[in-house]
Specification:
mainly alpha; two-stranded antiparallel ribbon; 2 strands
Length: 79
């Protein structure tokens, strides 16, 4: 029961971190200058290239934890 709740939480974090990766880095990947910054004049926000590695790392850690939580559940089901 607890493992299923943790897996659900990790899946939610995977979705959240994946969304943040898409909005904070992937969308702006062609806009970064040599300093690793991208300025959006419409919103006045400066996006940093370093955020990409942070969000993708958190996304991969969350999906890895999710898979590890579900792996024993799949093996323990009666046939």
């Amino acid at each position: 029961m607890i493992r299923s709740l943790v897996a659900s939480l990790l899946f939610g974090l995977f979705v959240l971190f994946g969304y943040m990766y898409g909005t904070q880095y992937f969308r702006w990947r062609d806009c970064f200058n040599e300093a690793g910054r991208c300025f959006d004049p419409q919103t006045g926000v400066v996006y940093l290239e370093q955020s990409g590695i942070t969000w993708i790392t958190l996304t991969l850690l969350a999906i890895g934890g999710f898979v590890l939580c579900l792996w024993p559940l799949r093996l323990s089901k009666p046939r």
